[in-house]
TrEMBL record:
Residues 3-277 form the UvrD-like helicase ATP-binding domain. Pfam families: UvrD-helicase (PF00580), UvrD_C (PF13361). Residues 278-574 form the UvrD-like helicase C-terminal domain. Coiled coil: none annotated. GO terms for biological process: DNA replication; recombinational repair. This is ATP-dependent DNA helicase Rep. Keywords: ATP-binding, DNA replication, DNA-binding, Helicase, Hydrolase, Isomerase, Nucleotide-binding. Homodimer. Belongs to the helicase family. UvrD subfamily. GO terms for molecular function: 3'-5' DNA helicase activity; ATP binding; ATP hydrolysis activity; single-stranded DNA binding. It comes from the Bacteria. Its EC number is 5.6.2.4. ATP binds at residues 24-31, 275.
């Protein structure tokens, strides 16, 4: 296991008998330490199933699983490699009954939560509901329940939100469901308050490894502490300069608390960066330098000076996109070493916020360059598509409770939350799925009679749809069926009623129609078997629906695609690409508006300063994703609504101090020089041609 590790990394890998913290800058091989340490632990005799490695995203988990497999082979498959949230799900599936939760509890996603909150707080305004959601989430991450939040509320607004939180929590309980924050909060409750549960999990966990430790929040830290217990066999790796989730409750205090809570903590620092050239690393170090230091560290690289970091100033967003794509094309078209670091997957375009992707997507499409948008919303995440898929899921599996709740309320069919709450309680009591509960003889005792009729009608309708879908074959029939169904449930008017902005509603309806068309196209005549022997086999609509509802899970597995990556800076954490372009590096975007938006309005000077520090860390994360070349671009004008307004370069560009030793890109100068060169050659040739 010692191949490709330096002395400090080896030390971290070989120390298996107690708590260990690897604290080091970007690209210094922290994640590599974790993967190798999994192998080392197995070598040392620990059963793979007693090892848990916790990553920050599902994608990072998938990648780590892959790397561990390459390194240690089959044994890797029994190692738990997942996010804190996924681990939480596992703990709750096994032990949630103690808290009154059945094993097939449902997980509400952000959209579900917004709609429940709208209902609890009696508002139709999604922005308000999201603001509540944000606050409630923050409280939960701080380990506060509604009562505690109310007790320490600083003002009336907070007290109102705390009341809504109480209602919201009641409703989740009635639905046998949890939100993302509960996936951490509830396991914590289980581990903290139920000694037998805690002991069982501690016995299961031989060694726990945590990547991106700087971005854990207070509750996650408590979960970790309970999991490892007094033996404290764990390895945490992190970089205080890359803490970029403060806004979601992550806290650097977790780094400070480790040596206090674990006095025998072994702290290891890594100083060599294996990812980036010196030019890139220097820009990164300069940017982060003004931030206060939690632990002093210096990073160096032996990869050579490399190309200078480039600054690109564009006229507007479209121009910026064209320049970024031109850069990709020019690097790909270069003459030296044509095969090296020039594939589409070697390029990434990174930006502050999701909505900034659009001009780049358009430019890439125009240039016929394949790409993927990561960290953003995929088509299958759109609310209207999820609505449709919920119905399909319910046809396929009547016992899918989250699908049931989504379908029965999209569109609303006069069955209120109170009824659904009663149905939920009843289902839990008799250990039934919500759908099964509809037809239980004793249901009327739990729900008022008028509501019972509505519920029965819904159940019969689902059965009917299921039957019809099973007998629908061929594109024409499938499309006709889907459109008829949408009409029956009044989905189009539901979209228009739920949305003040007609344009948005119409775009949603178009998505729905496109989706149905695509789905119908897959009905019938699809060749099952690659050999073609099964060419006559056709899929009915129900079977198509089944494959489709799997697609969103599948897309996570599409790795190794040779495509350009478009990503938010947040989602780029931990990753690396040979060529990176950071775009929209303007004041007001990166750093994000300071002082005049919702989250910082009324914030103190100190609060704003802390925000600026986090923004600076975000810039640092962006810069350090680049291995060989980096360009940073900003625009002189940007769109604000329909207007185009003047914009300024980010202060971070100046802070990179590129002028010390690098040149700015100026294509006009380059063109001028090229023209002069050609003119000279032509003149020389002409002179030579003369006798
Ligand atoms: P980040 O802070 O961005 O998460 P990290 O500290 O986790 O970075 P890694 O992703 O583990 O860094 O490593 C960065 C790159 O350096 C990877 O390509 C990795 O394979 C390589 N690397 C790490 N350690 C070594 C080493 N000892 N020898 C050669 N290459 C290494
Ligand atoms: Mg890493």
């Amino acid at each position: 296991m010692s191949a490709g590790l330096n002395t400090a990394q080896l030390e971290a890998v070989n120390y298996v008998s107690g708590p260990c913290l690897v604290l080091a800058g970007a690209g210094s091989g922290k994640t590599r330490v974790i993967t190798h340490k999994i192998g080392r632990l197995i070598e040392a005799g620990l059963e793979p199933k007693r090892i848990a490695a916790i990553t920050f995203t599902n994608k990072a988990a998938a990648e780590m699983r892959e790397r561990a497999k390459d390194l240690i082979g089959k044994a890797a498959k029994d190692v738990t490699v997942c996010t804190f949230h996924a681990l939480g799900v596992r703990i709750m599936r096994e032990d949630g009954q103690v808290l009154g939760l059945k094993p097939q509890f449902s997980i509400m996603d952000a959209d579900d939560v917004t709609s429940i909150l709208k209902d609890c707080g009696g508002t139709t305004d999604a922005a308000t509901a999201r603001q509540w959601q944000w606050t409630i989430s923050l409280w939960k991450n701080m380990g506060l329940n509604a009562e505690q939040a109310a007790a320490q509320a600083p003002d009336d607004n907070a007290r109102v939100i705390a009341r809504i939180m109480a209602l919201y929590q009641e409703r989740l309980t009635a639905y046998q469901s949890v939100d993302f924050d509960d996936l951490i909060g509830m396991p914590l409750k289980l581990l903290a308050e139920y000694p037998e549960v805690r002991e069982r999990w501690q016995a299961k966990m031989g060694h726990v490894l945590v990547d991106e430790y700087q971005d854990t929040n207070a509750t996650q830290y408590e979960v970790l502490k309970h999991l490892v217990g007094e033996r404290a066999r764990f390895t945490a790796v992190g970089d205080d300069d890359q803490s970029i989730y403060g806004w979601r409750g992550a806290t650097l205090d977790n780094l400070k608390r480790l040596p206090v809570d674990f006095p025998n903590l072994k702290v290891i620092k890594l100083e060599q960066n294996y990812r980036s050239t010196s030019a890139i690393l220097r820009a990164a170090n300069n940017v982060i330098q003004p931030n206060p230091k939690l632990f002093p560290k210096t990073l160096f690289s032996e990869l050579g000076e490399g190309e200078p970091v480039r600054v690109v100033d564009a006229v507007n967003e479209e121009h910026e996109a064209d320049r970024a794509i031109a850069r990709i094309q020019s690097i790909r078209g270069g003459q030296v070493n044509p095969s090296k670091h020039r594939e589409f997957k070697d390029f990434a375009i990174l930006y502050r916020a999701n909505h900034m992707a659009r001009p780049f997507e358009q430019a890439l499409r125009r240039a016929n360059i394949p790409y993927k948008v990561s960290g953003g919303q995929s088509f299958f995440d759109k609310a209207e598509i999820k609505d449709l898929c919920a119905w399909f899921r319910l046809w396929i599996n009547n016992d899918d409770d989250p699908a049931f709740l989504r379908a029965i309320t999209s569109p609303k069919r006069g069955i209120g939350h109170q009824t659904l709450g009663q149905l939920g309680t009843f289902a839990t009591q008799y250990k039934l799925s919500l759908f099964e509960a509809l037809f239980a003889g004793s249901l009327p005792s739990a729900v008022n009679t008028r509501a019972v009729d509505g519920l029965h009608e819904f159940g019969r309708y689902i059965n009917d749809l299921e039957h019809r879908a099973r007998h629908t074959l061929g594109k024409t029939d499938a499309l006709a069926f889907l459109l008829e169904w949408l009409k029956e449930i009044g989905y189009e008017s539901h979209l228009y009623d739920g949305e003040d902005n007609e344009k948005v509603a119409s775009a949603r309806w178009t998505n729905v129609l496109e989706f149905c068309d695509w789905m119908a196209g897959r009905c019938g005549g699809e060749i099952e078997d690659a050999t073609g022997t099964d060419a006559t086999d056709t899929k009915n609509l129900l079977e198509v629906a089944q494959t489709i509802s799997l697609i969103s899970t599948l897309s996570e597995r599409e790795k190794d695609q040779n495509v350009v990556t478009l990503s938010t800076l947040h989602a780029s954490k931990g990753l690396e690409w040979p060529h990176v372009t950071l775009v929209g590096v303007n004041e007001g975007l990166l750093p994000f508006k300071l002082g005049d938006d919702d989250t910082t309005a009324g914030a103190s000077q100190e609060g704003i300063l802390l925000r600026l520090q986090e923004e600076r860390r975000l810039m640092y994360v962006g810069i350090t994703r680049a291995q060989r070349s980096l360009a940073v671009s900003w625009t002189k004008r940007r769109k604000k609504g329909r207007e185009s307004v003047a914009a300024l370069p980010s202060r971070f560009i100046a802070e990179m101090r590129l002028d010390e030793n690098t040149v700015k890109e100026d294509p006009r100068e380059k063109l001028k020089a090229l023209r002069a060169e050609f003119a000279k050659r032509a003149a020389d040739a002409a002179a030579q041609a003369k006798p």
